[in-house]
Amino acid sequence: MLAMDYRGPYRVRAEQKPMPTIQHPEDAIVRVTRSCICGSDLHLYHGMVPDTRIGMTFGHEFTGIVEEVGSEVKNLKVGDHVIVPFNIACGKCHFCQQGLFGNCHESNSEATAVGGIFGYSHTAGGYDGGQAEYVRVPYADVGPTVIPPGMDLDDAVLLTDVVPTGYQAAEMGGIKRGDTVVVFGAGPVGIMAARCAWLFGAGRVIVIDHLEYRLDFARQYCPAEVYNFRSVEDPVYFLKKITDSLGADVCIDAVGGDAAGSAMHSLLGTKLKLEAGAATALHWAINSVKKGGIVSIVGVYGPTGNIVPIGNVVNKGITIRANQASVKRLLPRLIEHVQAGRINPKALITHKVPLEEVADAYHIFSAKLDGCIKPVLVPSSVNVS
Description:
385 residues; single chain; globular; 11 helices
């Protein structure tokens, strides 16, 4: 089968790889119909995530048709077209029973923190992902959800990660009616977090980024006030100034370790890798939120340490909430939002690229070319329309 193949930082290509097989009675084999490149994949692509091994196939956002099921799979049948959450979750462990499917204790042998994730290095279990024609899906009775009749595939594929992560970012913010919410990062997740902030009753939504085309998109889609942090001397001072000198009620870090804006953090976190990525957006979130406010973190950082102003967290009485989105828990509600027209996921998709051109797709997305917000890969056997 054709699959994306990682050859080292900034080097990916489409290669012929062995077909996946049933390895456990609870497995399924899925023929991929849509697969996204996520901003989190760029952390892998840039060499930011430890134990990302040569030969791995990335891709934790995909839909597909069930081709084969293991002997113990009861909830799926061959031919089902499914949304596959990016979390690999057993459904039975202590954390899954609490709805913390992103923290499954059985799907990742290194699960002191995160559970298994498709295509996301051996720190997340070492599973190959869905940027391929076929993929093995463990615990097939737990995660995959049959796509509702009539749902557009482009909407469905964004329910695997982008929509749930943006929604949970807003949910973790504890947004109350009338709150001012600041979202750092106008990538797909940041845009979705800003859109979902309105669903929780926000009275004002502000998006911060440095790329004008993304800010323009966020202004129209969310809709939101947008500001380019490069156009102000100090983003924290600026945000305090436009929020009655108090700060925002809620700040959301939707950037993670690839943040721009601080020469020191970029040097330490992305060049020398002495930090787990550049924590610039997290600093701004902590320092921009009001006393007693909430900082919600969905941006991806590596498993090593970061320089974080913890004293400011303590002295301001800030609550920090962070996690990988528990897609399975959120899917029923989000499907309802999409069907009711309250969220329009497919509008984020700017590029559909054949799987064979995966290297070009990564380059376009990474280099922020051609107004790219969200690229989707489509195997040649699938109609691209």
